[in-house]
Amino acid sequence: MSCLRVTLIDVGWGDSLLLESEDDQGNAYYGLIDSNDTSTLRSSHIFLKRFFEKKKVTVPAAGHTFEWVLLTHAHADHGQGLKKILRDFGTARFWYSQPANQPAFFADLLRYSRRSARVGQYDLVDTNKILPVFGAVSMQALWPLPGTVLPNENNNSVVLLLTLGKVSFILTGDAEADGVWTQIAGQIPPNTRFFKVPHHGSDNGTFTSLRTTPWLNSLTRSATVAISSHVQPFNHPDSTVIAALSAYNPTYRTDQHYHVTVETDGDNVKVTYSHV
Questions:
Q1: What domains are there in the chain, each with its CATH number?
Q2: CA atoms of 13 and 75, how far apart (whole Å)
Q3: What number is the average pLDDT over the span 61-84?
Q4: What's the rounded Cα separation, in Å, for the pair 244 and 183?
Q5: CB within 8 A of 117, min separation 6: which ones?
Q6: What span, in angstroms and rounded, lies between the C-alpha atoms of 222 and 268?
């Protein structure tokens, strides 16, 4: 039976998400979104190493473990750990959004992707990009728009829609309410059963300057919501967002539930969480 699992890795701050898709033949495919690891703090790398050891998946010296790796946007708390992950695990595809400027870690990632056999293809992602099938899962970029680079780097985040059977998941990066969700909230499908709360649950990820909540208004109450928390130093999630999410009980968050996994078989959705 086909399934899709998305794990919000508890990295303490920033983002890192592991995706696993299984097709009807039992073949497994892996994707990764973001990594904030540093040279001394390697939370996502350690998690991935243990995950694949438990799966008895040999991390190859050649070839690739991941079908794709995505950098949602060029902020260090989303991308500074990706080079080591690309080097140690390998990926068939490395995707990224066009940044407003080119921070050092991003320029280094592109240089590495161009020259390394550990990366198959590397490419820009926007709404014109036709994404490959991921196991039995279809994928579509809802944002950013082609040729649009916004000065607020959060609003260059790739917003990704994944669909298996009757169920859709939406993964949001740090896209903010004013810059992104006022434009694309109407594209949230009614079958969305999991929505990753944008920008670590910050106020500006959910509320516009007029205090409207565009993406929240487009979700049904059957949706599961979860937050990759960023408590230090930014105190995300914000109390205003937690209050707004009170209709979605519980709201899963990595600072309270640790590693949060949302799984669907295309009909049903279940959530598990753990320290390991």
A1: 3-274 (3.60.15.10)
A2: 12
A3: 94
A4: 20
A5: 62
A6: 11
